Amino acid sequence: MAASKRLVVSCLFLVLLFAQANSQGLKVGFYSKTCPQVEGIVRKVVFDAMKKAPTLGAPLLRMFFHDCFVRGCDGSVLLDKPNNQAEKSAVPNLSLRGFGIIDDSKAALEKVCPGIVSCSDVLALIARDAMVALEGPSWEVETGRRDGRVSNINEVNLPSPFDNITKLINDFRSKGLNEKDLVILSGGHTIGIGHCPLLTNRLYNFTGKGDSDPSLDSEYAAKLRKKCKPTDTTTALEMDPGSFKTFDVSYFTLVAKRRGLFQSDAALLDNSKTRAYVLQQVRTHGSMFFNDFGVSMVKMGRIGVLTGQAGEIRKTCRSAN
């Protein structure tokens, strides 16, 4: 009798797990039977592209972030629209690059598994593989997303480099992400570049009185002023000076020293929880950063997903069917 009760309990547990997976609609290995080669195909395209242009890593990571924060992770950032009315034409998205890698990955998949793999899943896989190509973290990517049909420039309202900690926390909470996720995902700033216009106020007119941001280390501010004159609109700056092409933990050391490039980086020290996470990464030399980054990326990849019969599987990623 005890054995049969245990069997019933085990079966109920499995049923609950199955129901949970179904309600979420995403799972690792979603295409294991319908397109088992999917991850290998995408990885090859990404690695080949990154060998030629390793600086594509940061824009590809940002592309996934920008997709998920507008209408959920539905591939809407990939769509083209007449008269530049799609998300990709919004100011925060104008610096995104690497759309050709999504196109090439999707084209390669369509040859092997036509009509099976969504563009939103392709983007999720590419974000992971781009980090691996930079010797950064790897994680198991949940798949099973379907593609949205809508992309509207007026819906783009993303966290900004100028945001304070209250706005950042609220923006992330509205997407089901917490303070730790905010810090860990900000750690993606370990790669890539920013441009002078995003710093002009911090360096020259922070409160409207010709002053600089007091939260920015004065020695670092002086160095930045040499590179960025008040009218400079083009000069690129390394987000993580000295290792901006490498995914590592030095970003947190810079933030702790008040040398984060953006106001949003400096803001991480303005809240007890986010500050504690930053200092923890410094204290432990980022021993858990790669693992934590993967966990937060999986969480972000669940935002507002379309699954089941919702949405569609696009034939090409730039246009709805």
Give me the secondary-structure topology:
Layout: H1 2-24, E1 27-28, H2 38-52, H3 57-68, H4 99-112, H5 119-133, E2 142-143, H6 165-173, H7 179-186, E3 193-195, H8 200-204, H9 218-227, E4 236-238, H10 250-256, H11 263-266, H12 272-283, H13 289-300
Antiparallel strand pairs: 1-2, 3-4
Helix pairs in contact: 2-4, 2-5, 3-5, 4-5, 7-12, 7-13, 10-12
Cofactor: heme b; Ca(2+)
Catalytic activity: 2 a phenolic donor + H2O2 = 2 a phenolic radical donor + 2 H2O
Subcellular location: Vacuole
Describe this structure in words.
The protein is 45% helix and 3% strand. The N terminus is likely disordered. With 321 residues, the protein is mainly alpha-helical. Helix 3 runs antiparallel to helix 5 and helix 7 crosses helix 13. The chain contains 13 helices and four strands. The radius of gyration is 21 Å and the shape is globular. A two-stranded antiparallel sheet has the order 1-2. It has a two-stranded antiparallel ribbon with strand order 3-4.
Task: Offer a concise description of the structure.
Keywords: Calcium, Disulfide bond, Glycoprotein, Heme, Hydrogen peroxide, Iron, Metal-binding, Oxidoreductase, Peroxidase, Secreted, Signal. With 321 residues, this protein is mostly helical.
